[in-house]
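Backbone shape codes:
===
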Amino acid sequence: MGHPTSFGQPSCLVWLAAAFLVLGLCLVQQGAGRQRPHQWKSSEAALSVSPAGDIVDKYSRDSTEGENTVSEGEAEGSRGGSWLEQEGVELRSPSQDSQTGTSTASPTGFRRYLRFLAPFDLVTIPGKPLVQKAKSRNEVGWVKNLLFLLPPTHVDMETFVDEIGRFPQEDRPLADAARLYLTVQAVRLVAHLQDEGVVHGKIMPDSFCLKREGGLYLRDFGSLVRAGAKVVVPAEYDEYTPPEGRAAARSRFGSGATTMTYAFDAWTLGSVIFLIWCSRAPDTKSGYEYSVEFFFSRCRRVPENVKLLVYKLINPSVEARLLALQAIETPEYREMEEQLSAASRLYSGDGTLTGGDDDMPPL
């Protein structure tokens, strides 16, 4: 497919405001109760952000580069379950949740609650050989006639963060609310994986994407393994690789493989949250100082609760590092949820403020 859609500032503002309106209602419905991931799975109040009218239909182009996408309607009628289910990750039955008593009608509906963007079918091109020689940039190789089908996405997280970073001063509150939304949802998604006993291993900005209705999704599950598995981490992931992964890669002894732990995903999650607010990965090369002041010395407009959460997630000590499931129970994270709920009530469906400046949440 083509490159990510370039959307103008007015349309982006409308899209954000619409997403926050519905998100705010979801957070209010969730109330003060702290739900664990297995309870979220059948709870639309936890992760669902629905379209507000036809506002986001202004986005007419799909932007999933290098992926084969189909409409939600086609996905609904697909045979088989999600890639996660097929690979044996022990997801609970989509038919009914024992905690809430609510149900989802299909595997596709179930995946919408989970916010995992995964292939739902594998197809071939009729009339073509199973394997065919192909040439690209003067290189010749063999290509299999097997294509994964995925639901369409609108924009990847990094492009979205870059776009809201260009907002003028008067629109900064909405941009900050968007960053807060990305932060809260990213933590929940990684917490889901930990709750299932798996490690993603590639939590990076381009592993997250947003769909047209405003929902944040996690993708790139080709690296997913059970916790405890040993994996050689590619060098290109270095910016988002924790110290233990870098040390294993540099070691002259052994295979260079890293033991994949929940702490590994926690570190990469913290690095992604840092990028959401600072537009770059944190400086965690050798010789860096592990302190809030050092990390955010050149990125000062970040809420204190975000700073503290990132600080705990990128702790160089594997044993002391905050994990995603622990993060959702911290005062910092709960405060973010409250701020996000407050921010969502300030915007109308057309992206304009409904409250005065004095009503703005303390971001």
In short: Residues 9-66+88-116+153-359 form a domain with the Transferase(Phosphotransferase); domain 1 fold (CATH 1.10.510.10).
